[in-house]
Design goal:
The structure is a homodimer of 288-residue chains.
Chain A lengths: L1 E5 L5 H10 L3 E5 L3 H7 L4 E2 L3 H5 L4 E4 L4 H9 L13 E4 L5 H13 L3 E4 L2 E2 L1 H7 L2 E6 L2 H14 E8 L3 H29 L4 H8 L7 H12 L8 H18 L4 H18 L7 H4 L6
Parallel strand pairs in A: 1-2, 1-4, 2-3, 4-5, 5-6, 8-9
Antiparallel strand pairs in A: 7-8
């Protein structure tokens, strides 16, 4: 298929490479040295989102944040300015659910279809094509996108209408963030008590406290291995999206708010590019 | 073996019954109608902890809280007043780690050995003999107690010296409590967003958010099934022990503190005898 691919960052480049390897013809925006280094002449390059969209059946976006997607789709020289009726636009960025719904309405007004399809799994999942993809949108659009998802991920969950993918992603990041904090506090208590954290970890894995986070991030904390993984500053951004969504909906998410603050402290403490299991390190910084 | 069993409550009665069924001779304190109803004439009854201790090789305690264990062991007519040298005292209550260390020192002074061995698994685990047992104490004492543990539980973890069992239990309750709150907030966000919580739950089970709590307590929340299970008021007590331990150690556990406050709110809202997954219900009580 002819695919316009907008967003050639750390996630986007290996995703684009996997689509090329699966036989798709890609037009990539932006044209950067990093994109040229990773993708070379296997793709065409476009000077604008509009140019990447032209003559494509599917447009994929993988951008850092809400304003980037709004600009790429609705801005000058954006996707909408050259969208042909029938084109499917798939936003795989992690952004605001409310913004997705507004953008989707505009794309529909131009005759296109829209999916929000944020991912988890990080750089490794992007490279290995093992992302977990959470999709919001119409069932027909999801079916049309499935060959793309099957290349990029190992698990695709259709959550509901447009925006539902972002809601699931935010829910995921709330659970992961709070569980990391839980494990960090439990291991901190063990160490402060002079008790072997590995023995506590092992005992907890056998019961209701067991989780993927306890297993993976707990081991990282015990070994002091905080190379990413998933970076503190990205998890901080994801919980900013959670805080915005909670605010818009008028709901109270106190645990999320606490971890958002702790991630903010961690970024300010210079831990932004550490793995999110480095929330454990904040425990060593108490004053008294 | 001749076992003194102190504490014939909701947990203690089925545990005592399992020890009787395994062929042990029990002397139970206290002698209550509930104990008579469950244990009948299969055990002897003692009017005091001292009487239950006399002529026994092993004394097991299963009591509600720290002062109860202090009183039963060190008080008038307590275990210490009739303890023979060589007797093993096993405290399976969930109490303060620091208190266990003090009590163990006094038992050692009287020539006895001591283990702290709190459990998780609740009434069902006590009845089915499938408790998870977290043990602190000397290796020889753990070996001597192993036949008892094998009757009462399906998993015994020797964590470290006396007090380490309680530390592991508290760590467990911190992780479970925070993970329940995480799942409650994630599902609340989904429902407030108009997104099917079951679809979000299913998507999250496939990735790093997956946990026993997401699986079990998440389903309880979605179905609105809040019959215990493990009661809010007991989890509240366990996090009081966590707060005391953190205070004594001078460590900061902000997530634990938050969930402790939320459990307190839940008890005050009349949810104390609901399953701890009923933290989800607090999400419906916001003012604005």
């Amino acid at each position: 298929m002819d695919i316009g691919f907008i967003g050639a960052g750390v996630m986007g480049r290996p995703m684009a490479a996997n689509l090329v390897a699966a036989g798709h013809r890609l037009t990539v925006h932006r044209d950067t040295p990093a994109a040229r280094a990773d993708l070379g002449t296997t793709v065409r390059y476009a000077a604008s989102a509009a140019e990447a969209t032209r003559d494509c059946e599917i447009v994929v976006l993988m951008l850092p944040d809400t304003p980037d997607v709004e600009e790429a789709v609705c801005g000058d020289d954006g996707v909408l300015s050259s969208l042909r009726p029938g084109t499917l636009v798939i936003d795989m960025s992690s952004i605001s659910p409310a913004a997705e719904r507004k953008i989707a309405t505009q794309v529909a007004g131009a005759g296109g279809a829209y999916l929000d399809a944020p991912v988890s799994g990080g750089e490794i999942g992007a490279r290995d094509g093992t992302l977990s993809i959470m999709v919001g949108g119409a069932p027909e659009a999801v079916e049309k996108a499935r060959p793309i998802f099957d290349v990029l991920g190992s698990r695709t969950s259709h959550i509901g209408p447009v925006g539902a993918g972002q809601v699931a992603k935010i829910a995921n990041q709330i659970v992961v963030g709070l569980t990391i904090e839980a494990v960090a506090e439990a291991l901190h208590l063990a160490e402060a008590s002079g008790v072997d954290p590995l023995a506590v970890h092992s005992a907890l894995m056998g019961g209701f406290a067991s989780s993927r986070v306890l297993e993976v991030h707990g081991h990282r904390m015990i070994k002091g291995q905080f190379d990413p993984g998933f970076r503190i500053r990205l998890h901080h951004k994801d919980l900013r999206l959670a805080a915005e969504a909670a605010d818009q909906l008028g709901v109270s998410l106190p645990g999320m708010n606490l971890v958002h603050v702790l991630l903010d402290r961690a970024v300010r403490a210079g831990l932004g590019d550490h793995d999110h299991s480095a929330l454990r390190l904040l425990r060593n910084e108490r004053a008294d």
